[in-house]
From TrEMBL:
Any single biological process term in GO: carbohydrate metabolic process
Record function comment: Catalyzes the reversible epimerization of D-ribulose 5-phosphate to D-xylulose 5-phosphate.
Cofactors demanded by this protein: Mn(2+); Zn(2+); Fe(2+)
EC number(s) recorded for this UniProt protein: 5.1.3.1
The family this protein is said to belong to: Belongs to the ribulose-phosphate 3-epimerase family.
Assembly notes: Homodimer.
UniProt keyword list: Carbohydrate metabolism, Iron, Isomerase, Manganese, Metal-binding, Signal, Zinc
Protein name: ribulose-phosphate 3-epimerase
Organism, scientific name: Triparma strigata
Length: 267
């Protein structure tokens, strides 16, 4: 009898999880259609000694998404974190969209791991796999929103064959794991090229996310070009007034904010 009850509990839990995930993914798709402006704070820039405190602060400040940049030390030279962090965040923040970017070699080997952990969006680099269409299909078939990442040196033409199949395109302003120089003009050119291709081919425009050194000093130019998701790390997590920074990002403002020290320095 106990085993039967345990099985029923697991089935009900799985059903509840899949229903809640479905609602979150439907929200991602609706936000895409409505071209909502979204700030997705990058968890890699949080203070890992006070991770829940930092995440609580950005969620309370109005961030509907959290960006998780997974780096394997091979495709991206640094190592960040893996699926256990995603799983912990999923349990603690059931209504927040978890926006996972897999900077890993052969991401097809990792997709199901992050699906099970509770990711809502899974984006992959086209250079990291020989099976890009299959990976995108696997992500979508698993109930998540698929995405693709464009590094500064990656041309838009590389993702044109699968553009209609993704919900998110992440345009990098920096080379992942390196930081340094920001390729703002190239990013703007890519944003505009994505929009032209979608319009010319009569396909839905995906979320256009920008990542790497995004701040209030460049957010207006990125939004004007057509970006609607701003992945911001240090500019949000290092601020003592996260709500003001998020508002600044969305409006391209220049409010003065206080910066705290003692944070991570992942690029």
């Amino acid at each position: 009898m106990k085993s039967v009850l345990a099985l029923l509990f697991l089935l009900n839990s799985a059903s509840a999880f899949s229903t809640s995930q479905q609602r979150r993914v439907e929200r991602v798709k609706l936000q895409k259609i409505n071209r909502e402006l979204i700030v997705s704070p990058s968890v890699a820039k949080a203070n890992f000694l006070h991770l829940q405190q930092d995440i609580d602060a950005v969620v309370s400040a109005g961030a509907p998404w959290l960006h998780l940049s997974v780096q394997d030390g091979y495709f991206v030279p640094k190592v960040s974190f893996g699926s256990p962090v995603v799983s912990a965040l999923r349990k603690q923040y059931p209504d927040t969209i978890l926006d996972c970017k897999l900077g890993t070699i052969n991401p097809e080997r990792r997709v199901q791991e992050f699906v099970k952990a509770g990711a809502d969006i899974i984006s992959v680099h086209p250079e990291a796999t020989l099976q890009l269409p299959a990976v995108i299909n696997d992500i979508a078939a698993s109930g998540c929103s698929p995405g693709v990442v464009l590094n500064p040196g990656t041309p838009v033409s590389l993702i044109e064959p699968i553009l209609e199949d993704v919900d998110v395109v992440v345009v990098m302003l920096v080379n992942p794991g390196h930081g340094g120089k920001k390729y703002l003009k190239q990013a703007i050119d890519k944003i505009q090229a994505i929009q032209r291709f979608a319009s010319d081919n009569d396909i839905p425009l995906p979320h256009i996310s920008v990542d790497g050194g995004v701040s209030a000093s460049n957010s207006a130019a990125l939004i004007d070009a057509g970006a609607n998701v701003l992945v911001a790390g240090g500019s949000v997590f290092k601020s003592d007034d996260k709500e003001a920074v998020i508002s600044d990002l969305l409006h391209g403002g220049s409010e003065t904010v206080t910066i705290s020290s003692g944070r991570n320095d992942f690029a």
